[in-house]
Amino acid sequence: MVSMTTRILVRLLGAVLAMALAASTSIGYIHFPPLTMQKMCKQSTNIRVLGVKKHDKEKGVVVYEVIEILKGENPKGMSFKHAIRKDADGAKPIFDWVEDGKRAVMFTIEGGGIACGYVFIDEFCYSVDYNTKGDFWLVVRVDPDMSACFHGTVEQLQKVAKDLLDGKDVKAPVKESTKALTLEEREKRVPALNDILTKNRGK
Questions:
Q1: Helix (H, G, I), strand (E, B), or coil: what is residue 87?
Q2: Residue bearing the bigger pLDDT, 183 or 167
Q3: pTM to 2 decimals?
Q4: Is 115 left (phi over 0), alpha (psi -120 to 50) or beta?
Q5: Strand, helix or coil at 82?
């Protein structure tokens, strides 16, 4: 007969392994993103359509609300406030785009106390990492090279994502002139990215 102590240890080990797996998966996802929308839909644990509830360009804050859940569930109490770092290069397209009521599609991997992902706005994309203590999503960097994965309007992406999740064979529009970053180019970004993630997750 299995003892109570053994059962507790097995549960703890399972929890630790689950957290380790989630951390490993999220690192791969944020460092080396899916290169096609098909893979993005498959690898993401959560896909949401967001709407801009309010924003403050001077403070670099965009507060979204969930309009529609395409995949996964919403953790209770999680906010969708996005904070744009003051030192984030190339964030102007986000500020040019943002207006109350505008919509975005957010793809994330969530689990084990870690959450990170990609937010597609009209013809642009940026990556985010969740700060659990502050309950906000830090904008890690802008990702114009993700137009090799998808390039178009949010309305188009909603339809493409729904079709792909339904198992339909559809082709996502991309920006032909954009080439996805090579593995070597991505690896060069790793140290700086790790520094941002470590600081955000350690607050």
A1: coil
A2: 167
A3: 0.85
A4: beta
A5: strand
